[in-house]
User: What shape does this take?
Amino acid sequence: MKLKFGPNSPYVRKVMVLAIELGLEGRIEKELVNHSPYEPDQGVLAINPLGKIPAFVTDEGMALFDSDVICEYLSVLAGDTVWFPAERSARWHALRYNALANGLLEAAQLVRLEQVRPVAFRYGNWVQAQTAKVLRAIASLESKPPAGVDIGSIAVACALGWLDYRFAELAWREAAPQLAEWFGEFSGRVSFASTRHRGQK
Assistant: This one.
C-alpha cells in the first residue's frame, strides 16, 4: 500500500493514527510530497483528481481518497470492529463525531486560507462565520466529549491537534475544560503522540 502525504495535514494524521492502532503502519509505503492547494503535486493528481491529500493506493492498485474512505478501507482490511463499530448505535455515534470533527476542520481551514491572503483580499464576515462554526463545534464537544475509542474520537483528536498547531491563539481549552481533559488523555496514545505535526511539541 502507498500513501502520499503532507506532514501538517490533520486528515493524513487521522489515517496514520488509525493505521498504527490497527497494526498496519509497517505495510504502508509513505511518500512525502511538496503539495499545496494552489500547486498540487502531480503524483497526487494521478491518484486523486481533486488534488487533495491523503492519496492512497491499495496493494491491488486501486486509488482511494479521502481520509474517511481510506480509514474505512484499513478497518475492513484489518477485520476491525472497534474503530468502525459493527453495532449500529455505536457506529452512528462514532460517525457522528467524525462528521462533527470534519466540519470543524473544514471551517478552520477556510479561516486559515483567508489568513494567508493579502489583507486587502480578506473577507472579514466570512472569517467570522467560519470561526463561529468552529466555536459551536467545540461547545458541542464540550457538552459531551467523545467516549471510548473509535473513528470519531480519532477525528476529534486530530481536529483539536490541528487547532493547537494553527490556531493556538484560539485558546479553546479555556471554554472547554472537559474536552481539554479528554484530549489530554487521548494525546497520551502512542499513535497520536507519534504523529504530531511538523515542528509541533
Summary: The radius of gyration is 17 Å.
